[in-house]
Amino acid sequence: MKFDMGSTTLSDLGKSTVGSSDDLGTLIQALITAVEPLEGRFNGAGRAAFDSFKARSDEITAALNDSLRMILGGQSGMDTAFGTGDQEQADNAQQHMAGANFEAARFSGR
Fold it and tell me: What is the tens place of the pLDDT at every residue in 19-55?
């Protein structure tokens, strides 16, 4: 199994997630504004659900944004881990190459 990812993939994904968080809050507010003309036009359980959603819209937006922030935190942690691992691999390779006796591996008659 081969896992190949560019060095900026996770940071680019993080930037996209930040934008999605802003968009999500805007979309929820747009939904509330769009359904305002329906307010008072229905009764019963539908009205109760609508009123509950409208009353809790800020709470719902905050909960969704908190979830996206957690995702962003995970992406940032993975980005750090991948970057650290990449650097450690390069450092280890340099260290082992510096100590290797490449002359001993020659098969020439010298």
Answer: 776 677 788 888 888 888 887 787 899 888 888 888 8
Residue 4 has pLDDT above 70, yes or no: no
The span from the CA of 87 to the CA of 30, in Å, is 45
Give the C-alpha distances (Å, rounded to integers) separating 19 from 43, 65, 70, 94.
37, 11, 14, 39
CA–CA distance, 71 with 17 (Å, rounded to integer): 8
Cα separation of 106 and 50, whole Å? Answer: 79
Tokens of 12: 């680019």
Domain 10-98, CATH: 1.10.287
